[in-house]
Amino acid sequence: MEETVKKTMARQEAELFSSDGRKKYTVVGVYTLPPSSSEKDEEEEEEEEEEEGKDSSDLPVESELVGFSIWQRIDPTTPLDSPISNAKESQDPCLANRFFAQMNRTRESIMAGKTYYFLKLLTILPNHQRKGLGSTLVNWGTKKADKQAIPAWLESSPMGKGTYLKAGFKILGIDQIDEKRAKRGFVDWPYMLYQGQPSQCE
Fold it and tell me: Which PANTHER family match (predicted)?
């Protein structure tokens, strides 16, 4: 990974987990539990899934974080991301800065003036992929959106597209940026919208 990409990702991490970031974003994690902690009836598990504000402090010490998602609820009063990402792109037009700037421009143009949930990031450890954990993290956000009758937005990697389609997201379009080092001379990705209930996008 080129050094500029590493620096950009470090800035993203610093933003997400800063004191302001913790107020702005909701981090949802999935854990593996020791065998003695996994014997629960379905009713108890469902109650825990619905509990608001639950954190990992009461999990067994042996529990392991194997994946997480970062969600943001955006409304018309939420400050725009594009002015900051556009400035970073102008100062240093590396691939990562151009990528984030284009994503923000597209999202904020299409979703201007609307209230919605935004899936900013989802990651699962490689050895825990293909186990339905990604769907669990996606469904957390779609359930929130359904309860409030608002849509949800995300940008997808090729690997994650199937999970998002299965969860009810639909592809609105394909975004891209030029990149001479890419095989086709550009990098592209789909942006997707979930509308499980009648929403403000209709």
Answer: GNAT FAMILY ACETYLTRANSFERASE, N-ACETYLTRANSFERASE DOMAIN-CONTAINING PROTEIN
Which pair of tokens denotes residue 35?
A: 């065998």
Task: Fold for 3-194, please state it.
Answer: Aminopeptidase (3.40.630)
Helices (H), 63-183: 82-91, 95-110, 133-148, 161-166
Closest CA to 190 of 119, 97, 84, 116: 119
Radius of gyration of the chain (CA): 18
C-alpha distance across the termini of the chain, in Å: 41
Q: Which residues contact 158 (CB under 8 A, 6 or more apart)?
A: 189
Place of tokens 């929130």: 144
pLDDT in tens, 42-79: 333 333 344 455 666 666 666 778 888 999 999 999 99
Residues 123 and 157: beta-carbon distance below 8 Å: no
**Does pTM top 0.90 for this prediction?**
no
DSSP for residue 158: T
Q: Can you tell me the distance from the alpha carbon of 154 to that of 70, in angstroms, rounded to the nearest whole number?
A: 11
CB 193 within 8 A of CB 142: no
Domain edges within the chain = 3-194
Angle at 201 between CA 196 and CA 202, to 5 degrees: 85
Parallel, antiparallel, or unpaired for β 26-32 and 64-74? antiparallel
Measure the CA–CA gap between 82 and 103, rounded to whole angstroms.
9
